[in-house]
Amino acid sequence: MSKEIFVAFATQKGGIGKSTVTALAASYLHNVKGYNVAVVDCDDPQHSIHGLREHETGLIDSSTYFKALACDHFRKIKKNAYTIVKSNAVNALDDAERMIATEDVKPDVVFFDMPGTLRSNGVIKTLSQMDYIFTPLSADRFVVESTLKFVTMFRDRLMTTGQAKTKGLYLFWTMVDGRERNDLYGIYEEVIAEMGFPVLSTRLPDSKKFRRDLSEERKSVFRSTIFPMDTALLKGSGIREFSEEISEIIRPQ
After folding, report:
1. Which end of the chain lies in a sparser environment, N or C, as judged by fewer CB atoms within 10 Å?
2. How far is it, in rounded angstroms, from Cα 4 to Cα 22?
3. CA distance 124 to 102
4. Distance in Å from the first CA to the final CA of the chain
C-alpha cells in the first residue's frame, strides 16, 4: 500500500450526512490547511461527491463569473481542486492506487466516502486498509446502538486481531439539534467511553447551510468540492473545529 494517509467516513446508517461531511472536511484540509487531498467516492450508486463536482464544473464552464472566481482561487492556493475518483467499495483500493500512481502531485490524504451499509460488497475489506476511520453519530437510540455494534465489531474482529491496519477509530456527533438536552449527549458519551471509543469534541449542528451548494442564484457557497467555504457561513458550522481535530489526529507524528 502507499504511504499516503487513508481516511474513511463510515457508518452502517444512511442519511446521516456522511458524504457532506467528507466533502467539507476535504475542502477545508485542501484549501485552508494546505494538504494535498484526494477523494475516492465509493458510495455507489449515489456518488454524491462526484455528482457535486460535475455540477460545479458545469456551472463554471457556463459562467464567466464563476470561471473568473475559480481562476482567482487556484492562483491564490497555487494548486488545482482536489481529485475525485468515482469508484465502489470493491474497487476503491485499486482505483486509489491507480490515481496516486498517475498524479503529478501526490495526495497527502485520501478520503474514502463509503456506502451507508456494511452489506455492500468490499466495504469491510476496504475499511481494513484505512489508517483512520471517523464514524458519525446522531442522538437517536437506534443510530447509537447500530453505530456501536459496527465499531465494536470492527475493533474486536479486525483491529485487535491485526487484520486491519487502522490506527484509530473515532466517533463524532452530527446533525445536532440545538434544542436537544446537552445531558443526553453526556449520558451517551459515558457509555461510549466505557466501551473504549474516543469521541471528537466538536459537534456538528443540524443546519441548512450544509446543503448550500454552488448556484447561479447566490454568490456565497458552503458545500463545495472546488471553492473554500464562505467565511460568514463557516462561522458556527463547527467545520473549522472539526477539520482541525481531524488534522491533529491524522498528522504524521
Report:
1. C
2. 17
3. 26
4. 19
| Res. 1 pLDDT band, cuts 50 70 90 | very low
Taking the C-alpha atoms of residue 7 and residue 22, their distance in angstroms, rounded to an integer, is 10
Residue 134 to residues 190, 219, 237: CA-CA distances in angstroms? 19, 31, 18
Pairing, β 132-137 against β 5-9: parallel
Do strands 83-86 and 132-137 pair parallel, antiparallel, or not at all (unpaired)? unpaired
Strands 37-41 and 83-86: parallel
d(CA 130, CA 120): 17
Q: What angle, 0 to 180 degrees and rounded to 10, lies between the N-to-C axes of helices 18-31 and 239-250?
A: 70
CB atoms within 10 A of CB 94: 10
Count of positions (residues) in the chain: 253
Q: What is the pLDDT of residue 12?
A: 77
